[in-house]
Design goal:
By secondary structure, this protein is an alpha+beta fold. It is 24% helix and 28% strand. The chain has a six-stranded mixed sheet, sandwiched between helices. The chain has a two-stranded antiparallel sheet with strand order 1-2. Strands 4-5 form a two-stranded antiparallel ribbon.
Length: 188
């Protein structure tokens, strides 16, 4: 049985404590992240949001913001996916006002942070789906390898390490982040 966004909304109203996505007609219940992965996600969200908010460039959201994606099959609105990247950015001119609902658009930037239980391949596939549907940039943060991989449609991925700087001139001109700033600090 293939489920729809309406089915997901019904299940969400019955279980508001669950984080869910709709993928190819199947509802996926998302487990919580490990502490370090969530801290990295929060750090990246903070760095992005500080830049975006002060310049009124758009909206930065976390893993609970659902995006209704267009169907990959022409004219089949029943087969739409609802996905929620760990971090996303939407330019101001594409979403002038927030909505109290899922939004029907593809974010300009999507970020996935690998948690302890995640496998890399499904995260890469999720990023590729967003890119195929119109996202400009996808980022995969891997705390296990201390790498940040930047994806763009029809381009080879770029892998960044400590000592490198993340820039996104095609989405956020002028913004820079030292990769080493993503990793949680160690306190004495």
């Amino acid at each position: 049985m293939s489920l729809t966004i309406a089915d997901l909304e019904q299940l969400q109203s019955e279980h508001p404590e669950w984080r869910m996505e709709l993928v190819e007609g199947n509802i996926i219940v998302m487990g919580p992240s490990d502490y370090e992965s969530e801290e990295i996600t929060t750090r990246l969200t903070t760095f992005l949001n500080n830049w975006v908010m002060s310049r009124k460039l758009g909206r930065v959201t976390g893993s609970s913001a659902g995006f209704i994606l267009p169907s990959m099959e022409e004219g089949d609105s029943e087969k739409r996916n609802l996905r929620a990247p760990d971090v996303s950015f939407v330019r101001a001119d594409r979403l002038k006002k927030s909505k109290r609902d899922f939004v029907e658009l593809v974010p300009d930037l999507v970020v996935e942070v690998k948690s302890k239980s995640d496998r890399i391949k499904p995260l890469e596939e999720k990023i590729q789906l967003f890119l195929q549907l119109g996202s400009t940039v996808g980022i995969l943060v891997d705390p296990d390898k201390l790498t940040v991989t930047v994806y763009r449609l029809n381009q080879a991925p770029v892998v960044l390490h400590n000592g490198d700087t993340l820039t996104l001139p095609d989405v956020l001109p002028g913004w820079e982040l030292a990769i080493s700033e993503l990793w949680p600090p160690e306190f004495e």
